Amino acid sequence: MPHLESQGEGGLGLFGMKYLPLAVVLIVAGPCWAKPPALGWYDTRLTYTYSVLATLSNGDTVKLDPAYFEPYGDAFTMTGFSYLVKDHGVLVGPYGSTHNNVVYEQFGTALTAERVFELEKDFAPISYDEQRAARMYQFIEKFVRTRNARGDMQKSLNALHSPVQFWSNSGGLIKLGNSTITAITVLEPTWLYDGVTLSKIRQIPLHSVNVDSAP
After folding, report:
1. Do β-strands 51-56 and 97-98 pair in parallel, antiparallel, or remain unpaired?
2. Paired residues of 197 in beta bridges
3. What is the pLDDT of residues 182-194, one digit of tens each?
4. Do 181 and 69 meet the contact criterion of CB atoms below 8 Å apart?
5. pTM of the model
6. What contacts 81, CB < 8 A, 6 or more positions away?
7. Which residues pair with 52 in a beta bridge?
8. Which residues pair with 48 in a beta bridge?
């Protein structure tokens, strides 16, 4: 390979002693010009979850597990939805994780619901996004209308989906039978673990809408 040989030092001139001083400078200054992705996080005792309640045509009310929205089930459990929340800031991401060590240090042993609400005001600016929220609610409504029109997926080949994951299926796939969904409500429960018990410290309704039958 004549081209490589012409570079000297086995064709790897770039790695020779000539460039060693520059390499040292670039390595030492690495944090200034190359920001690595955050591969670690802090686990906290606080988490925000998002639930979709459905009112059925037979009068029952059921919680729609993320698995109902397959193939989007994982997105409903592993994505943050702080842009849906108007009333308060969100301190942590999915599963109570945070990359912010300042926020993490606030979670002392005596953390209470009242203290959580104070921390939200001090450390978590509201990140509500009207356009993103509208798109999300539109997706949910359209998805439910389509499922209404197609009937219970458990009765068709649509039931042959990928294996259900534990994080997207807390209570089993909902079998609607001959019922359809007439209304949906999106809720945001906030949970706090005190070392013994996981407690719901707040639940806020985010969105409610009646669902027509047309997909």
Report:
1. unpaired
2. none
3. 999 999 999 999 8
4. no
5. 0.72
6. 48, 50, 136, 188
7. 64, 186
8. 190
